[in-house]
Amino acid sequence: MKLTYALTALGLAVATPLPALAATIQAVMYKNPQCSCCEAYATYLEHNGFKVEIKPVNNLSQISSNAGVPADLEGCHTMMVDGYVVDGLVPVDIVKKLLTERPAIAGITLAGMPAGAPGMGGEKSETWTVYAFTKDGKGPTVYASE
After folding, report:
1. Which helix (H) or strand (E) holds 143?
2. What is the largest CA-CA distance in the chain?
3. What is the chain's Cα-based Rg?
4. What gap in Å lies between CA 67 and CA 135, rounded to an integer?
5. Which residues make Cβ contacts (< 8 Å) with residue 4, sequence separation at least 6?
6. DSSP per residue over 62-98, as a string?
7. What is the pTM of this model?
8. pLDDT per residue over 43-55, tens digit each?
9. How many CB atoms lie within 10 A of CB 32?
10. pLDDT one-digit tens code per residue, 54-78
11. From residue 113, how far is each of 23, 25, 67, 76 by CA, in Å?
C-alpha cells in the first residue's frame, strides 16, 4: 500500500493510505448483431470502470434462458460479470451494488429497452424496476428501482 504524509497542526508527519485504484471489472456481453444500443451501453459501462467484450450472437434468447433470465423479463443483451448475469440496460450503480452485495441470485434484469436507459435515447419517463432472478424456479423479486 502506498502511503503519503500529511502534516498535522503540530507539524508532525502522519502516514495516511492513498485510495486504491479500483480494478477494471471484466464483462462479456452477448447481443443480437443488429442491436446498436448494446454498444452504447458497453461504452457507458467502460466509462464507469468496466471492460466489456462484445459477442454478437444469433441465439440470444437461448443464452438468456440458459443463464436463468425469465423469458418475460429479457432485455436486449445478456452480460456475464463476476459470476452474475446482468440482462438489459441496468444502470451502472445497480450493477455495482450487485457486485458489492453479492446476493445468492443468478443475476438481475431490466426488461425491454426503456427510453432514457443507459445506451438508449430519449428521456426517462418512468421508474425502472430491476428484478433479481435465480435458477431454482422461484419467481423473480424486485432488486432495485430507479
Report:
1. strand 141-145
2. 67
3. 19
4. 8
5. 15, 16, 18
6. HHHHHTT--GGG-BSEEEEETTEEEEE---HHHHHHH
7. 0.82
8. 999 999 999 999 9
9. 15
10. 999 999 999 999 999 999 999 989 9
11. 29, 24, 19, 7
